[in-house]
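Let's sit down with a protein and look at its sequence and fold side by side. We need material for that, and I hope you will provide a protein of your own picking. Once you have written the record down, we can walk along the chain together.

***
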Amino acid sequence: MLLASLVLAGGCGGDDSSDDSGGGGSSGGGGGTAYGSKKDDGGSKKDKAAASSGAGQLKLTADPSGALKFDKTSLSTKPGKTTIVLDNPSSVPHAIEVEGKGVEEEGETVEKGGVSKVSVDLKPGEYEYYCPVDGHRQAGMEGTLKVG
């Protein structure tokens, strides 16, 4: 199920030329491709494990009605570099931040139609993700990210 989420998330999100994950705009089969992976030709199990370890994209969406909540309150991934992409269809500004185990990284605050991204190098364990806009986290716009 995680792999299916990564494949679906790989083709989504804005066009940010500073993010070279290799998943945007290709034939769709490489959505779960790892950063720096050398091979995605449907090869051996070892190749596929390397391609899915860590690197990937996780997708969140802010509530389109303006409620202070995400569409998911829990996410999971494997250790390594991961990018969380937050789509904001709401008229309320939002951003994404990840915190825990010595990591604290925040994406850009975006208005309606914008995309906030945060890339982090994750070790096994639990992290929190939330909207850092004043009062949003306290109102419930947060979730748990499990890495293992």
Remarks:
- The first helix runs from residue 2 to 10.
